[in-house]
Amino acid sequence: MEDLIAVPRGWIEAFGEIVKFCSKIVGEVFRLRAFRFFGETLRQAGILVVGSTLIIWGFVFIVGATCGLEGGYFNNQNGVPAYSGVFAAWCDLRELAPYAFGYMMAAKVGTGLVAELGSMRISDEIDALEVMGISGVTFLGATRLLAAWMVLPFMYLVSIGASFFASYLVSVQQLGYVSSGGFFVIFWEFQNPPDVLFSVIKAMAMATMIVLVGIYYGYHASGGPVGVGTATAKSMVLNLVGVHLIGMLGTQIFWGANPRAPIGG
Amino acid sequence: MPRFKMFGGSDDEPQRPEEAGPPEPGAPPHWGGPSAGAESPSERAESPSERWQPPAGEPSPPDEPAPIEDERQSGDEPEPEPERADESEPAAETQPTSRVSVIDEPASRPPPPKGASEEEYKWHTYKHYPSGRPDAIEFIDTYKAFGRNQILRGLNMSLPEGMVSMILGPSGTGKSVCIKHMVGLLYPDDGDVLVHGNSVPNMPDDDLFDMRKKFGLLFQDGALFGSMNVFDNVAFPLRQHTEKGEEEIGEIVNRRLSEVGLGSDGDKMPNELSGGMRKRAGFARALVLEPDIVLFDEPDSGLDPVRTALLGELILEIHRDMMDEAKAKQKEHLPTFSVITHDIMSARRVADYINVLWKGRIVEAGPAEDMLNSDNPFIRQFLSGESQGPLTMD
Which residues of A fall within a CB distance of 8 Å from B216? Predict the structure, then answer.
């Protein structure tokens, strides 16, 4: 019985530790301490832009194209090819763009953070930083979170654009089941500005969680290179679960009560 | 050519530290507790700080030196290292009376840690020979465990100001853990750690980060930031903690890099450096803020004997320069260096003061000459590196 309880208790303890650490990082940003190291924040923002932008946009573009294909074939089969734009408006904006963004953030940025900070931990670089009188939580954690908040909303907005563009290309230019004007009439009919805002909120919640989880696992890595590898794998698992939880909750909260579907009056 | 000769050398060799004041004439070793009086009198009264008389029926004790009172009464004890004194130096500078005390009142030997037998600690005489200096760092009855692994088990240790102190001891005995306690990277489970009289475990975070600015720490592998070149690594503390312009920072960094022989390697990345170069770069970075206390975590690990000797010389040279500078600027605290090592030759070459740590407690501590001449079989075995003696593979 003790053993049975020990496992979930360990999970709850670990989760509590993660929440406590992440709250500290967020607190450092809101108390403006991260701005003491604004140079480092800008450096991290630059790394994020240069290192991750194209790959995220590329991935979301492919997912948007998939939405366009599915929408085109499905609606054509049902005799309403003009409604291909619904898929672009809903599938892209509400679900697949945030998920694709979250997947690539977890795979590229989250694991990168664990690997980078974990290597710094096992080579005593974080201890060296602390001994210099510089808070590792602020310098390494809060700056990265602030950089993510500075860069990712814009990166995500362009990602949405990339997914829309891909859906348009496939539905209108490749399949040709619907005209350009017909596509856009339905496309705009099924979304409004708050939907974009909700989508950004959803994606930013995912991104924030991914960055915080990455920082936590990297900062607390131990056990040499194998420990860093293990921490990277754990962070990926947690991030994927978290991305879907946030995606599900976001859909429920933002569109559950009012799906804003102008069908049937 | 080394600048200094190790203690016990002939009198015509330059002695060091030139600045060190002598212990009080006839000053005895004191036992167990920290040597300086930075803590409150009540804390001091509780510290296990007096000479131990072996109880009847104890297993054969170490070769115990003659009882102190006998020595003092006989009047034929050796003079207390007059060659290590600088008589031109004001006494007040070397012995601030507020933080120096020599305790010679008899007291009982501290009991072994919980779960340990007296037999395991029979070589621990807990003697602390007086350094004649106030303590920069003190451990007071410090306990630390990692899970079931007890590391520090009631440690009482002091590192005197203005000296190069060594912490020696077998592997796994808690030396690196001590360093992490000094800078607040670890906190004791029980007991206290004082830096210039301030309790590290009780500091708020902001004070702790301020206190850490007093420290320079050379990690085993240098712990250089892999994303920066050598110049930026050394400049990093200056950029973060000072308002100096880039030109001035450049001058300071280049001077420090030249001191450690890396004047032309500033643009190299850490992965382009050898192990010894990384250590030297780490040394330059540790010194760049002119800290009061510099800690070296096994600076000789992975180095060949010649480079180990050169690094030892460098430590001494920079300590001497910093002492001169501290005196010239009349700084509140003299620079304190503390070196963790297994290398006995390094200890003989570099140490002013030696703490021998084993099983989480100090076996004996004192000025290098006293320790190198210790009668304790454990100390003798360890400092001579012999296989025969109390220390075994167990």
Answer: 131
